[in-house]
Prior knowledge:
Layout: H1 13-18, H2 21-25, E1 29-30, E2 33-34, H3 45-61, H4 65-72, E3 79-84, H5 90-101, E4 105-109, H6 123-130, E5 136-141, H7 146-155, E6 163-168, H8 174-187, E7 198-202, H9 209-217, E8 225-229, H10 238-246, E9 250-254, H11 257-260, E10 266-269, E11 306-308, H12 329-347, H13 351-356
Parallel strand pairs: 3-4, 3-5, 5-6, 7-8, 7-10, 8-9, 10-11
Antiparallel strand pairs: 1-2
Helix pairs in contact: 3-12, 5-12, 8-9, 8-12
Amino acid sequence: MSPTKRTLAEISWDELQWLSPLEKAELFNLGERPFHVLMAQQFSRPMLEELGELATRIRQIAKSKAGMDFLRGLLTHRTAMLYFSQPSTRTFLSFHSACQILGMKTVEVRDTATSSELKGETQEDSIRTFSSFAEVIIMRSAIGGLAEKMAWVLSNTERPVPIVSAGSGKDQHPTQALLDIYTLQRSFETRGGIDGKTIVFVGDLARGRTVRSLAFLLTRYQGVKQYFIAPPQLQIGEDILALLRQAHCAFEVGHDFKKVIPAADAIYMTRIQDEWDEQAGQSGKIDISRFSFTAAHLAKLPSKAVIMHPLPRRQEIAVEVDEDTRAVYWRQVRNGMWVRVALLVAIFDGADDIRRYDGA
């Protein structure tokens, strides 16, 4: 039997490490719905479309008090552990709000100085402890691969609690990519969807885990072209380009931002990720002056294009751009909450309950 046909409980950790991202991804789902949420590769196009439709349906239901009461009753018997050992604003609040909408109880650790890790407990032991108190662990860590390791560990215990990665080292940020796809779905819903669109990524692409996840998800759509515009030191990694080649996805790597603006359907700006600097001030030596979106660039941008950003931002998008209708980064924040509501519903197999709701 092929390893990709087995479950995480039937494969050794060493075997798992030899699998490709696509082979690993098959182990993280239960059929056509997610269980662990660890990487973009585990989401097929039908799953992305279904998740977007589910998020939109939930938004519609939430517009009434009766609808909100219905949503708050869906997962009252579930508890979520929010383990954020790396700083976060939007992702933490988004997941916390999503849990509240569904009536889930939450427990949290946001500062390891207040946990037994201060006494020397490993993060692995902490997470195993959390699995005793919650039915899902949503975790954000600066340690690459930790979420995947803990998904494997818990899958091999008597309490196989799902792990949802809210960012894992410089690897991936799958739920950010899901909300980005949802934002693109809604932005292009009257323009034929995401198929055939041109997406321009700008900034720190080497260390931006949101870009790494979204770049792959875009390969699920037909005829998408991706541009990666960055200083040489911050350019997208070869591992991502290899995945795009394997998927036969068109892309170009360059540094001339102004040149590609007129061709863009979406521009995805990113900040400098200097928290990953190996030496303090390392990123400050890189000239990034040509990789910011200013008010002057608006005239070059097509009228139906959108400007995106995973936030937080620094100076890479001028505040004057905020008032332009093509700037959708604040909409992304809101979309993130609804997508994460839909994701939790999917994990706990509640999509049919949402579909059956008739407003009565």
